[in-house]
Amino acid sequence: MSGIRHRLTDERGSVLVLALFIMALLMAVGVVLLRMSGSETDIAYNTVWAEGSFYAAEAALAVGIDQLGPTLVNDVALANTPLGTQFTQQGNVQFLGTTAQPGYSLGSGTGYNPAGYVFYTYTVSGTGTGPRNAQRQLEVRATFGPVAQ
Fold first, then answer.
1. Strand pairing of 135-148 and 112-129?
2. Strand order in the sheet with 135-148
3. Going residue by residue through the chain (149 aa), what tens digit of pLDDT does each one get?
4. Strand, coil or helix: what is 107?
5. Short-list 83, 92, 93, 80, CA closest to 53
6. Quick count: other Cβ atoms within 10 Å of Cβ 46?
7. For the whole prediction, is pTM greater than 0.85?
8. What's the distance, Cα to Cα, between the start and end of the chain in Å?
9. Total Cβ atoms within 10 A of residue 10
10. What is the rounded CA–CA span in Å between residue 30 and residue 44?
């Protein structure tokens, strides 16, 4: 019986077990911190790509708005244009119709026009695409005018 009691009270090697346990705990904490760092990096990249896709869609809108005028009465698909090496833009201009209103012209010296003016209404949509399927779509309704009748 005294041999069993001697083995149970012998503390040799307990420091080694405790040191191994602490090392395993520190390693687990390190792995968790590395994973958090990796996910923060992915979030930052995704934010940059989403923002770049938004700016590409905005560029497609700008190209579409530059084409507005009284002669544009058909739907126009804007070309798929690469922006740098990672982003592309694509747009569409759709003619919605006209509205007539009487009033003054914006041109100097033209005065009041009793026949009225016409305003052309369009819908311009733009899509920007980036890496890892980052995509943003924008749509704007634009009115061109007044154009004298």
1. antiparallel
2. 76-83, 87-104, 112-129, 135-148
3. 566 666 667 777 788 888 999 999 999 999 988 888 778 888 888 888 999 999 999 999 999 888 888 888 888 888 888 887 889 999 999 999 988 877 765 555 566 667 778 888 999 999 999 988 899 999 999 988 877 76
4. coil
5. 83
6. 14
7. no
8. 116
9. 9
10. 21
